[in-house]
Amino acid sequence: METKILLTHCKDEPGLISKITNICYKHQLNIVHNNEFVDNTSGHFFMRTELNGYFNDQTLIADLDQALPDGAKRQLVSSSRKRIVVLVTKEAHCLGDILMKAYDGTLNVDIAAVVGNYDTLKGLTEKFDIPYHHVSHQGLNREEHETEVMKVIEQYQADYLVLAKYMRVLTPSFVEKYHHKIINIHHSFLPAFIGAKPYQQAYERGVKIIGATAHFVTDDLDEGPIIKQDVIPVDHNFSALDMAQAGRDVEKNVLSKALNLVLNDHVFVYGNKTVLL
Amino acid sequence: METKILLTHCKDEPGLISKITNICYKHQLNIVHNNEFVDNTSGHFFMRTELNGYFNDQTLIADLDQALPDGAKRQLVSSSRKRIVVLVTKEAHCLGDILMKAYDGTLNVDIAAVVGNYDTLKGLTEKFDIPYHHVSHQGLNREEHETEVMKVIEQYQADYLVLAKYMRVLTPSFVEKYHHKIINIHHSFLPAFIGAKPYQQAYERGVKIIGATAHFVTDDLDEGPIIKQDVIPVDHNFSALDMAQAGRDVEKNVLSKALNLVLNDHVFVYGNKTVLL
Amino acid sequence: METKILLTHCKDEPGLISKITNICYKHQLNIVHNNEFVDNTSGHFFMRTELNGYFNDQTLIADLDQALPDGAKRQLVSSSRKRIVVLVTKEAHCLGDILMKAYDGTLNVDIAAVVGNYDTLKGLTEKFDIPYHHVSHQGLNREEHETEVMKVIEQYQADYLVLAKYMRVLTPSFVEKYHHKIINIHHSFLPAFIGAKPYQQAYERGVKIIGATAHFVTDDLDEGPIIKQDVIPVDHNFSALDMAQAGRDVEKNVLSKALNLVLNDHVFVYGNKTVLL
Amino acid sequence: METKILLTHCKDEPGLISKITNICYKHQLNIVHNNEFVDNTSGHFFMRTELNGYFNDQTLIADLDQALPDGAKRQLVSSSRKRIVVLVTKEAHCLGDILMKAYDGTLNVDIAAVVGNYDTLKGLTEKFDIPYHHVSHQGLNREEHETEVMKVIEQYQADYLVLAKYMRVLTPSFVEKYHHKIINIHHSFLPAFIGAKPYQQAYERGVKIIGATAHFVTDDLDEGPIIKQDVIPVDHNFSALDMAQAGRDVEKNVLSKALNLVLNDHVFVYGNKTVLL
């Protein structure tokens, strides 16, 4: 017996749930969880079906392809553990949280490697017996540096890249290469305070709440599909630095919740948004 | 074209989603929203299906009865506006919020009448052209008072009774008469601070968070199925009275969110719990 | 015995708390609550002192003026109930909440009048025996309309103007006339989604949290000093309209909390920020 | 120049703030932060004053003793880093968070040692070069085991003991020995679900919110002064195990926030409550 997840999305039409669940039933697969959503604005249908049983992937997919409307996307993913490569700069809290949660099993993930443009977090990473690659950006232009980073990443066959406070902007060609496979944590409640130094911006604006946003990276800086956001209250007592320190917990919690959703195949990307089922 | 909601719950078995959605499809009913849940502990299946189309209730129910396992409960409810009677004592905030939200359409409800054991809230109720019945408990024992209250309630054919800070304990016979039809707001985060004066209890315990709980009323005081809870932070600056004042917003918000769930048929009661679909 | 609030702010220097509290002690005034804050970035000192006793305002102020550094601002305000005029357009929830909280005493305020550019909320306002002035903007340019609105407002000698979902942008001359006396509720978590239709903007961006911001109105649209903010979670199920409906509770709660702070003299405006003591 | 914190609490009387701040001013100490609170129910005064300058501890304390009412408690504490010993059983998340935050400087603390009644967390602790003592309770009665634990603890001269999911009840004599020096994280929103298996209890009650409570340990199980609490929403989808997993983040966040308050001398214990200044 195996557990797999069927992800379907297509143009909405009557009878889709019935058709898909019929096929699962015919294949003697038990539906453990099922969630569906219709975006009425665009007329698009999404369904995540967690199935248990003995799978014949080929015939199952063939049956679905026959039943679903033209252009339907369907994917049968194994529930096995995904692999990530984490990119970092100097801040320890997000990386530390991921390392700890991978260690104690809270996150169902293999951290294949950590890549940093400084060596600050080498010691922390190696405590957990995970390879750390220091790829300095010193003396390299953006493209050259990314080429070096990619060489390292390529070895690891990762399912996702996680930017755990990686403080460099990626080039369009890098982003394109890992389309919807790069997850970033931005230290503001987007779309407030896009760009550099969001806590300084938040301090100067005098906001009473700060936040963090985990999103897929796209070409438009800080404009990719949002997966998870959360906030904490602040007040006049907080300097920009206090906000940055207070923000650490919310950053790491948001990133880890987003990873949990992505790693367990709960996330559909649709246009510039996510549907979480 | 009408919108109706099909509520199904029964022992879990393979193929239920497929069977139910097939029948809906066969009846040319469009599924607007569908949510299901299987309680793996008890092996029980719950499904809420919002349907749009031309209904033949009798044949639809007959088809379902044939397909579903023995003992299945299924109910087809109209999405029309429900009627409530509100019971109050002296505090205005919960009643005021319900009156205002019924007035501006935020709550899809008809307030048939308000019944109070004091006349404090008569003026407020009548501003909104809703009948207020003052049924004093003075000089009556609990059963006598409830008999009088019931006489008033009976006129109105209400779907639900809402205890909006009604500060009297109901007798088992009253509760039984309106089985799972009475919704109460308790001014604590249950099961903390059961019984009288929860804010005083919270103050004495020195908690850092207070809350409110909306639940169905059962024979066991403050032990009925919980529909909705929420909390707010407090600190050493709060006296018991300050907590009571600060708690008003959370009480009224929790009650109104619970009502919204109940009035739109999102709530299954199962054992001493609710399943919200 | 009276209760008054002493609000002091000035350039920081050693000994300020000692000097001010000495003067209060010398005047035999009891300090009920005291809160102070030093903004280390600007070197500015703020203190709110709630005093109880028999006041000789003139000598108290004179003593303070002698002790405090040049340019110090100090103000002794009575704790009596403030007067507001509320400006509205068509949406009922914020006005309704203020009316209800003034009625039941949750907000310590006199609502002198309500002014609307539509007559939609006249019925609701008059239920509470408060004068409603319908000042239509039809056929008038912005300045002409504001002149009419001001004529009405002027009669009431209000301490503050409250924009309870007043959907018109004010001219600089109007704003200047009521400098730091106009409180607005903006239906987004500022500075995200400045300007028109913030829920539509939020929907299009696919955010997972929406919010509301109460702020003083300045010349720069949605850029005034923020008093209070709060948020609620949303997800892919929410249309722009659903967000607007869900946002009602957070809007009214944020506005009413901000009013509570302002009406009880907890708010210092400093530059483009507030200090809440 | 040094930074120290003056903690004063005593019977309330007029002029206390003035007297204390005068003395600080006379000693040419600059007040960096000052917070005070009067508990009007008991007539008790609390003040935390963060001071910067050149200290003559003896004369400062002598001056205070002369000025303050009989029975006043005053304490001048250095702002230097405190030492803790952490007690654990098998769960990694709270210990892991403390280790990581001590490592990256988020918590201003020295972890002198970790003591566990199992050896499960030895590997994790030693990654951070901190001594781990496995003191098994196997074959020992409660007193014998505690004697062994105390032998280990005594070596380290800790300021506080932190129970990071230490799943054993302490004896009164142990608790008395470290009076108000033991901080525990309880995995429920106390006083709900006192005692064993709170998540199982929460599951059975069908609550919609779960939480965690950090408190000082006293003789009465789970009844000590509460320092910090927080909650997260749950629903019918959560089994007792799911709640336990979801609760990990809130447990570790609450414990680490409570530690931050305690380690920076923001916490007064008064009766069975805390005052956080």
From TrEMBL, chains A, B, C, D:
Keywords: Hydrolase, One-carbon metabolism, Purine biosynthesis. It is an enzyme of class 3 (hydrolase). It catalyses: (6R)-10-formyltetrahydrofolate + H2O = (6S)-5,6,7,8-tetrahydrofolate + formate + H(+). The active site is at residue 222. InterPro entries: ACT-like_dom_sf, ACT_dom, Formyl-FH4-Hydrolase_C, Formyl_transf_N, Formyl_transf_N_sf, PurU, PurU_ACT. GO terms for biological process: 'de novo' IMP biosynthetic process; one-carbon metabolic process. It holds the Pfam family Formyl_trans_N. Gene3D superfamilies: 3.30.70.260, Formyl transferase, N-terminal domain. CDD domains: ACT_F4HF-DF, FMT_core_Formyl-FH4-Hydrolase_C. GO terms for molecular function: formyltetrahydrofolate deformylase activity. Its EC number is 3.5.1.10. Residues 5-85 form the ACT domain. HAMAP family: PurU. PANTHER family: FORMYLTETRAHYDROFOLATE DEFORMYLASE, FORMYLTETRAHYDROFOLATE DEFORMYLASE 2, MITOCHONDRIAL. Catalyzes the hydrolysis of 10-formyltetrahydrofolate (formyl-FH4) to formate and tetrahydrofolate (FH4). Belongs to the PurU family. This is Formyltetrahydrofolate deformylase.
